[in-house]
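Problem: given the chain below (109 residues), write out its structure.
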Amino acid sequence: MGELFDVRADGSVVVRLHVQPGAARTGVLGRHGEALKVAVAAPADKGRANEAVLALVAEVLAVPRSAVALVGGAKNRQKRVEVRGTTADAVRTALGNAVAAASVATRRR
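Solution.
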């Protein structure tokens, strides 16, 4: 399987997401093809789900919320989120850990 993100020429990282708004709880669910599947409790109403997605990505990647921006998919479940101030290696590790944790949580249910 390929990476869940792309690296731009300026060094910023763009993470591909598949978002499930209005979920029972917020968190990483695992992979969805070439995207990271995430769920947010916020509804897809007036940008609330988008804001929750950005906060979740910042938390998972351990970067400030101000370093994360939505660059594609504002009104779509498929989103692209740009992350500045981190490296591709750090993103790869953090996303790998998040996917692994989601996989373990799924098996325990």
